[in-house]
Amino acid sequence: MRHDSVAGKGLLAMPSSGPTEATPVELSEKLLCLFNAEVERTDDGYAVTIPDREIDIGTIEPGDVYRVALIARGDDAPSEGSGSAPSQPQPPVEQGEIRYVEIEDLGKQGDGIARVERGYVIIVPGADVGERVKIEVSEVKSNFAVGEVLE
After folding, report:
1. Does residue 148 contact residue 122 with C-beta atoms inside 8 Å?
2. Does domain 98-149 have CATH number 3.40.50.10860?
């Protein structure tokens, strides 16, 4: 997936029906968080669990009311002709992706460390612990990524 910012609005390219097509989805500047979650059945309806990290970093507050949008995960469906799923989980970020991250720690060389989905690490040079920064992912490896601070 690729995230871009255009004239103050975010664009998220979501996989479409074809193998090389992407459908842009406009994201509001008011977007507070973006995460993957499963819709679960409860006794009286359905629920989506918000990750603890979104509460911990202060993005959202328990008890407040928010608008929720659900975007289909077209990238989870196996493509035609593929025999099986990849043997290892794919990194939860892509090169060029733009996102907000919370710096949780400092690495041995003083670089900021952020953790995203599944504990995946993004190294952010020049960021300090406790900062919430907007980054562009510049390099993606199987077990970590590097992000450059945009603002």
Report:
1. no
2. no
